[in-house]
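DM from R.C. (forwarded with permission)

"hey, sorry to bug you on a friday — could you get me a structure for this? deadline for the figure draft is monday and I only need the backbone to look sensible"
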Amino acid sequence: MSIPISQVIKTFQGEGSCIGQPCILLRTYKCNLACTFCDSKYTWNDSDPTFILSDSNYIEFIDIINQYDTRNLLLTGGEPSIYFDNPIYNNMIIDLLPKFEIIEIETNGSFAPFSTLKLPDFKKIKFNISPKKINDIVLNNIKWLKNNNITHNIKIIHISDKYVLEMVDNLHMSITDNNLYILPFTDNNHKTDYLRTARFCIDNNINISPRFHMDVFNTAKNEYERII
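My reply, with the result:
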């Protein structure tokens, strides 16, 4: 068993309900989708993983993470749920739970049931679901989170007004649900159209989230301090 990793960095959460909070970001390699507007294509289409986490280096890896005095852990990708049934990934979360105030999991929600993640409890876990396509797995995952009172947010990229409204409808949500965040679209030239998204959110009474890391670092890679 092993897990390919693209990045482990010290940074801050750039979007959503924990925006601005310092964190260690752990970005796994591989994704089940290939979105044309993806801002981290390097995790699945044009480079190799920088590190392979395995049984042989697991203890050393956990020790390295534990050396950093940082509030939160952000697990992202690629698509992290690809590894939810991997004992190494599951054990990594369990072993790091005592250290962090919050462990955020960024996922498109469409690959694997979240219930495959076997944790002693989910009190410190926050799921950030950014669905790119709606299937039964996404809908069942959101239902599972609600039924088990697990903290979660839904983030939708503002590709267009129609796109957002159709996504909300297909997710069986209300446009005014407090855990719904609309994120401005960032194009391939790293330009973010905040004004268009702000107008849409104000007119529709929806939460807007900036993408602060994109503004600061001008890239989703945001390598302030590389750990691995």
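R.C.: lifesaver. The domain at 2-154 is CATH 3.20.20.70 (TIM Barrel).
me: no worries. The mean pLDDT is 93.
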